[in-house]
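DM from R.C. (forwarded with permission)

"hey, sorry to bug you on a friday — could you get me a structure for this? deadline for the figure draft is monday and I only need the backbone to look sensible"
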Amino acid sequence: VQLQASGGGLVQAGGSLRLSCAASGRTFSNYVMGWFRQAPGKEREFVARITGSGGTKYYADSVKGRFTISRDNAENTVYLQMNSLKPEDTAVYYCAADRALPRYYSSSYYEDVRKYDYWGQGTQVTVSS
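My reply, with the result:
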């Protein structure tokens, strides 16, 4: 699976951005898609994930209520709508894909960065105060 993330940029606090991640190479709906982010000097952290059908979504507590993950399997694309952005959301955002294993959907399995086999190149999000 090849992943191409886009949509990052510079935005003021309280603003919005929509990230996109286009996938190619495999049957897109067979993959759980995740968004992660990495701020300077910090480890890459989980942001949101969505199951292959799009029916179930999970979020990090830090973004719950502000970010929304979605996917369009016909377009092989996953999105991250980010509203009410804060300076602490500043990071490089990465999309990732891993095989969908339903037995792990309700666990923290897909919040572990090490579980994902495929990664996009990252897109910078900068939120100014």
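R.C.: lifesaver. The radius of gyration is 14 Å.
me: no worries. The chain has no helices and eleven strands.
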